[in-house]
Structure formats: structure tokens, C-alpha cells
Amino acid sequence: MKMLYDTILAKSFSRYERKKFGFWSLVGCLIIALSFFTVFKPSFGRLPTLKLQSAMSTGALTLLRIEDTSISKRLESKTKEETKSMCNILDPRSAFCEVEGDIRIHGNSSTIFVASSQMGTLAENKSWSIRPYARKEDETAMGLVTELSVKSVVGHEEAPHCTLYHNIPAILFSLGGYAGNHFHDFSDILVPLFLTSRQFNGEVQFLLSDSRSWWLTKFEKVLERLSKYETISIDRDSEIHCFPSVIVGLKYHKELSIDPSKSPNGYTMKDFRVFLRSSYSLKRATAIRIRDLAHDKPRLLIISRRKTRSFTNEAEIAQMARNLGYQVVVAEANTATDLLKFAQIVNSCDVMMGIHGAGLTNIVFLPTNAILIQIVPLGGLEWLASHDFGNPALDMNIRYLEYKIKEEESSLIQQYPLDHAVFKDPLSFQKQGWETVRSIFMEKQNVKLDVSRFRATLSEALELLHQ
Ligand SMILES: *[C@@H]1O[C@H](CO)[C@@H](O)[C@H](O)[C@H]1NC(C)=O
Ligand SMILES: *[C@@H]1O[C@H](CO)[C@@H](O)[C@H](O)[C@H]1NC(C)=O
């Protein structure tokens, strides 16, 4: 289930992201990844087995999968003793090194040298392999992340000479993996980056591997607020950057959320959202509290999807909502080339509803006490729905309602008889693997909401806004 879930969002790339991170850029990444492994073959010992599968697609997106079967084996082969010293490579989700001292980083060879004297506790030549992306157990994602090596070398003269000195700490992370999918941008990168870097108050240098300029542009406003220094892409960088300390990899707690008991300064998701609001200059801190519906019109945002998992009766839903007293806004998250504009739309609303998908990640911009209504399509996707959005919403002080559709609300009734396993035993498809689930339930299912049944959920949301 876990693996299934990891791939579900990864592959539900939105249209906007498809354009940005389309087929050719995937091929490009792949070629870079392949040539990387070829060029550096001697220094990596056993090479990962690269299996290329041209995976199927209905739309513009053809995904190439890289399976790196050697990642987990390689990690297992490390000893406990190594782990204690400077790299936590046993964390189940995010491998992570935090090192102070004489740090020298050579991007072009993907190496972080830690020079120490003969007397030091690290008076031994050691090396750790790290892929600095927080989805370690997902081989598809990690296959798209460049492997770095952290080497402790005895004797300062053994490490390459510094060509650039920096007097602030560095944080090195990858923009590979599933970067470009809105959910993963936040869950795998931005929330972990906040957790790892906020404590430095901007006095920190971000170093990027697998860097992509469109990603940096998209999240410019967030990055600017976390670091006062322009990011450095180290992929083909021949400089030797020297730092007093470095963190390689990002801290990770849970999906699209933070565990305050583990975070520096007790940071919470609330802090993350306050930070986002300030980064995007969003006006509303809290949702409306209705006293009189004639004057206080709550705003409902319907997240529209065009290609897959679409509402087929959007106008009817919007009309019913207006009759209840809502002001209705319909917007498609996927076409939001301008994140600032979309963040403003979301922040202006009190209730956000949408079918399960990466677009719901935009709850991060909702005001406190707003309400998320997640529409769960058929396919045994309940676990996924609460894991990805239901639980994170609660950590964000967003109230959460779920609406599970019935057979007759799914377009699948036009394709399968009612006694088919698609309706009777949807979980059985998960055993057949992700591709099956994806093609049946995620790619070919649209939703025609039964507005008289759904009315009760929208009324409940109205009721909550009175409290
Ligand atoms: C570490 O490696 C260097 C050469 O790379 C070698 O000169 C040195 O003796 C080694 N030190 C230890 C403690 O193995
Ligand atoms: C990076 O490394 C490759 C392979 O070692 C080398 O051919 C290339 O010239 C290097 N590039 C730079 C900018 O140093």
C-alpha cells in the first residue's frame, strides 16, 4: 500500500507540470542520470541496475521509470558505527548528514570532503553515499536523485584546495525525485527545507543538486525568505566551495506535515503556514466566522480538474452551493503558472473542495479554521486520502470533511457492470500493482456529484463556519 501510495501522486502530474516537466525533460534527466553513472562508474563500486521502462500514458506524459535495485542493499551494508559518527543513513525516510569542521564541496564530482587532523575523532578515511531527497523508500523517486558521497579524509592536505570560502552553514538538497508535482514539492522538499533551514534565520547557503531553474522560479518567494543568499547549483560546478558546516539532505517527519516534538525550536505546521502567508503576502490569517448569512458570505473554492478525475457537473454543484449561501470560485490549480496568484485565490476562500489529487496541496494557503472537503473517488483510496490530505489538514488547523462517492456518481458505471470487482472489491486491484490502479481509478474516472446528497456536506461546512 505504501509503495502504491508513493507512486500515485508521483504520477498524477498536473497539466501545468506536464508542460514544464514534460516528456523530453524526463528523457533529459534520464540521460543526465545515465551519463552521470557512466562517468563516475569507477568511484561508485557496484552500479545500480538501471531498468528503463517506457511506462504508458494516456496524455502527454510518458513516464520513464528507473529502478535502482541497489539502493537499499547498499544502505544496509553500512555499519551501525558509521551511522553514529556523522551521517544518519538509517532514517527510514531521509538520509541526512550534519557535519561541522573543514568542509569542502566539489559539485562536479558530487563529493563532500570533511577534512580532519590525525588527532580528530574522525581520524579515519570513511565514505557515505547519500541521495539528498526525502522519499528514501521509493526507488522510482530515488532513481531520479544524484548520489553524493560524503568523505572524511585524514589530513587537510588530502582534500582539494578551496577556491571559494563561505562563512555560513550550507544545506545541500536535490531537486530531483518527484519535484514538479505540487504535492511532492511541498511534502518532499519545501516542508523539510523549512524544518531544516528556518533555524538559521536566513544565514544559510542553499546548494542544489539535480537543479532545475523553473522550480527555483516557481518557489522563488519561499527560497528568498529562507536564505538571504542566492542558491548555488552544484551539478557541474568545478569550484571547491568551503564551509564551516554542512547539512546534506533534509529533515523529514511526516507527509506534508511537521512533528513539533522533533523539530528545532518546536516548529509546527502552523509556523510553516504563517511563514508561507508572509512569503506570499497573503492577507487572511483566519477564515470567516458567520454570524448572519445574509451579510457574511463564505467563499467556496471548487478545485477543478480537466483531464482526469473531473467533476462532470461543476455548474450544478456551483449553483447548489450558491443556493446554500456560498460565494463560489471555480479554479483549476494545474493551470496556475503563477503560484502567487493561485495562493491568493485559495487564501481568499473559507472552504475548499476537490477530488483527491495534487491540487489539494493548496490547502497550505488556506486561512486557519478553513475547511477542506475531499471527494474520494472509487478505488479503495481512503487510506491514501487521509494520509496525504486529511491528517495534514488537521495539523494545519484546517477542519476536514470527506465525501466518498457512490457507484452511481462514478463514470466507471458506464464501463463496468455493477457486480464487477471494480465496485465489489477495488482493493484487489492494488495487488496487481500501481499501473492497474492508476489506469482504472485515477486516469479513467470522472465524478458526477449527487448534489442532493452532497448538499449535506456543504451544509455541515456552513455549520462549522458558525462556530
Ligand atoms: C587516508 O587516505 C590518504 C590518501 O587518500 C592516506 O594518505 C592516509 O594514510 C589515509 N589515512 C588513514 C588513517 O587511513
Ligand atoms: C566535470 O567532470 C567531468 C568528468 O570528470 C569532466 O570531463 C569535466 O570537464 C568536468 N567539468 C568541469 C566544469 O570541471
From TrEMBL:
InterPro entries: Glyco_transf_61_cat (IPR049625), Glycosyltransferase_61 (IPR007657)
Location relative to the cell: Golgi apparatus membrane
Keyword vocabulary terms for this entry: Glycoprotein, Glycosyltransferase, Membrane, Transferase, Transmembrane, Transmembrane helix
Glycosyltransferase 61 catalytic domain residues: 284-372
Chief location bin: Golgi
Record bears the keyword Glycoprotein: yes
Domain of life from the UniProt record: Eukaryota
GO MF annotation terms: pentosyltransferase activity
UniProt topology in membrane: Single-pass type II membrane protein
GO cellular component: Golgi membrane
Entries under Pfam families matching the protein: Glyco_transf_61
Record keyword Membrane present: yes
Transmembrane stretches, start-end: 21-40
PANTHER family xref list: GLYCOSYLTRANSFERASE, GLYCOSYLTRANSFERASE-RELATED
Listed name of the protein: Glycosyltransferase 61 catalytic domain-containing protein
Organism whose genome encodes this protein: Tetracentron sinense (Spur-leaf)
Organism ancestry: Eukaryota, Viridiplantae, Streptophyta, Embryophyta, Tracheophyta
